[in-house]
C-alpha cells in the first residue's frame, strides 16, 4: 500500500507542518516510521492520510479539532463510505469521500 511523506500530506490537506507535528506528538495521527529524532522522513499510511484529509476538511469548514476527533471516535471511517456527514445541532457538513479519494490517488 502506498505511503505519503509529510510534505505530500501537507499538500493534500493544506494544513501547516506545525499542526501535523502536533497531531503526531499527541497521538491523534499515527506515522509508519517511528524513528526518533530529527532528520527522519515521516511517512503516513493511505488510511491515515485519508483520515487527515477528512479532518483538515472539517477544520477548514469551521469544526474544531476536538469536535472532529470526537466525531471520529464515535463514528470512525469505513472503506465503503461515499460521503461523511458531520452534524452538530443546526450545522451540517457533508464531505464527498470519492472526491477526497480521487485527490489522494492522483
Number of helices: 5
As a percent range, the share of helical residues equals 40-55%
What global shape is seen?
globular
Count the E strands.
Answer: 4
Give the N-terminus to C-terminus distance in angstroms. 15 Å
The portion of residues forming beta strands comes to 15-25%
- Cα gyration radius (Å): 14 Å
Give me the CATH architecture, please.
Answer: Orthogonal Bundle
CATH class, please?
Answer: Mainly Alpha
Low-confidence stretches: none
Can you write the helix and strand succession as a string? Answer: EHHEHHEEH
Quote the average pLDDT: 78
Which strand order does the major sheet show? 1-2
What is the total domain count? 1
**CATH third-level topology:** Multidrug-efflux Transporter Regulator, Chain: A, Domain 2
Helix/strand-derived category reads alpha+beta
The biggest beta sheet is recorded as: 2 strands, antiparallel
Structure, described:
With 106 residues, this protein is an alpha+beta fold. It has one domain: Multidrug-efflux Transporter Regulator, Chain: A, Domain 2. Helices cover 49% and strands 17% of the residues. It contains five helices and four strands. Strands 1-2 form a two-stranded antiparallel ribbon. Strands 3-4 form a two-stranded antiparallel sheet. A hairpin with a 2-residue loop joins β3 and β4. α3 crosses α5. The longest helix is centred in the middle third of the chain and has 15 residues. The protein is globular and about 45 Å long. The model has no long low-confidence stretch (mean pLDDT 78).
